[in-house]
Structure formats: C-alpha cells, structure tokens
Design brief:
single chain; mainly alpha; 5 helices; about 0% strand; elongated
C-alpha cells in the first residue's frame, strides 16, 4: 500500500543519508550491542569516537518515537471523536434490533409464523 511504501522510503532515505557516516543509526540495539561488546573486548574509543556520537543512534529513535506519538495524539487523534460517537450509536441500534428479534421469537433476523423456527 501507499503507507508502507512511504515508511520504507523514509527508512531508505535515512539509511542513504546517514549510513556512511555513522552506520545506519535507526535501531538502537543494532548500534549499542556491538559497541558494548567492543568495549568489553578492550577496544579503545568505542564510546568516545567522533565526539561521543554513540548516544545519538541510541537516544535518537527513542526521542523520535515519543515525538511521533505526541504529534499523532495532538494533530490527528483529536479529530477522531466523531468516529467514536458513530460507533456508540451503531451499538445502541444493534442492541435495540436484537431485543426486537428476541421479543418476536425469530432467529436469523427473520419473523416466522407462530414465532418458532421451521426446519
């Protein structure tokens, strides 16, 4: 669909623009775990390289996710109230219709003569 193509294109664009400089910083687990392993193995500069850049791929996606949720909540979700009201009305109508069907003694939404099912 169009949405999945947009998300894939965004991920691809981030990878193309930042991938060569810092190793595709879109997944914190992909960047942090190798740095921790390298530090445990004794490599120098795993966390201090490039002016302590290690925290950007770790915190960047987390901060971006929180900002994305906030933007969605305040810019899009606030306009969904009419959908909720419609669904409540539809539920009330369904309850009213089902009680009428039960009172008439019909099944499958059809009124049978005598109020009983005929096979």
């Amino acid at each position: 669909s169009t949405q999945s193509t947009g998300v894939g294109g965004s991920v691809f664009a981030i990878g193309l623009s930042f991938g060569t400089n810092c190793g595709y910083p879109i997944n914190p687990a992909r960047d942090l775990a190798p740095r921790i392993a390298a530090a445990m193995l004794g490599y120098d500069g795993t966390f201090s390289a490039s002016n302590y850049y290690f925290w950007v791929p770790v915190l960047g996606p987390l901060i971006g996710a929180v900002l994305g949720v906030a933007c969605y909540t305040f810019l899009i979700e606030c306009h969904h109230t009419s959908d909720v009201e419609v669904s409540k009305t539809e539920v009330k109508e369904e309850i009213a219709l089902s009680s009428v069907v039960i009172e008439n003694g019909a099944s499958d939404g059809e009124n049978k003569p005598g109020g009983e099912d005929q096979a």
